[in-house]
Amino acid sequence: MSVQQPKYMINGYLSEGAESDFLSRNRAFRLGDGFFETIRVVDGHIPFWEAHYKRLVATCKALRMELSPVLKSDFLLRSMQELISAQQIREGGRLRITIFREGGGAYTSDSNRAGYVAEIVSYFPNRFVIPDRGATLGTFTDFSKTPGKLSKFKLMGRLTFTWSQSNGLMPGQGVCPNANEVKRTIMASVVKFFMTVSALKKCIENGLK
Q: What is the CATH code for 8-122?
């Protein structure tokens, strides 16, 4: 039985695999000059597309990247649905769109136009759920994220998140959030937090403002 090759969508064109030369010259891969958007797929379709696209456009604007025609909302959504179908995702999926500044150059790019590569894998469960058992949290204090104009965007090189999940988790913990430098925002890589008043009071007592 042959193994299906993963498919990618690169600037509106379906590819059977991300070519090595594409990766080697890509500025997001080489210099971290890019960002990503991760999207849940439910029943083979993308919910909340408008909210995801709004953040994508806002990040491009903050990084001064020019939207190319392949990144217009309707065209991009159709391309993502084509990728979902090609990869035979009929239920839950995890779609990632990596946006990068096109062009060559070293630190200084010769173009500000934005391009993208998208990939998708199956994801369980198919629905958004709140587990009955809740979640066991750890705390990560080795590094904290510096707040600033770009800190709210999903930029490449998010080492505080990858480091906290790879090295901060203790046995039995599901996620290891970390606070920013002024302890006003809790951030994590895999969950959203909805805090009760009593839980918020406990956080304040432990130093989170």
A: 3.30.470.10
